[in-house]
Amino acid sequence: MTLKVVIADDEDLIRAGLRIIIDAEPDLTVVGEAADGAAVLPVVRRERPDVVLMDVRMPALDGIQATGRLVGLDRPPKVLVVTTFENDDHVYDALRAGASGFLLKRTRPDELVQAIRLVATGESLLFPAAIRTLAGRRTSAPDPRGVPGIDRLTAREGDVLRLMAKGLSNHEIAAELVVSHETVKTHVGNVLAKLRARDRTQAVIAAYESGFVSPR
Questions:
Q1: Which one of 89, 127, 130, 141 has the lowest number of neighbouring Cβ atoms within 10 Å?
Q2: 0.85 surpassed by pTM
């Protein structure tokens, strides 16, 4: 099955370069582009992409607001933020708004296409060190009450969430906890359900914002 991608970036050269890389892959195709955040929504409604590559700094409507509107659709695409600087606070805001991860604009082409495939399958693209740094700047006063469900996690689900925040995959978590891969999948599913998180990235953000995991 071919994965459909929409590119949202206000720079023509960036959009053209991303299109060339993506369209060169047999299982990926660019079905639309947008030069500002306000233009993304109609393109997504028309083309129904699997993944949107979203620049965070755009005119008319920035990538943060555009991401929030996209995740509110009945059939929301996965959003991958594309940014110049990994320590940009806008990245953290976009993740909070519902993006599944972020990429740097200097990312290698093979890493870009693999990231698209990864988030399209429902996984998240986590850079734990960068997210921890951003969370440390933005969550000076964690509030467990602001994250419903965090107090309903079992001890084991808490262990799993902490390892998710470190960027470990399900297989790595299974090895760390000496349990089966299927058991970890069940725990991850329970964590997402209790936190009402769309994916692992949203669960990790919730862990930081509640103080369940400390960024320091």
A1: 141
A2: no
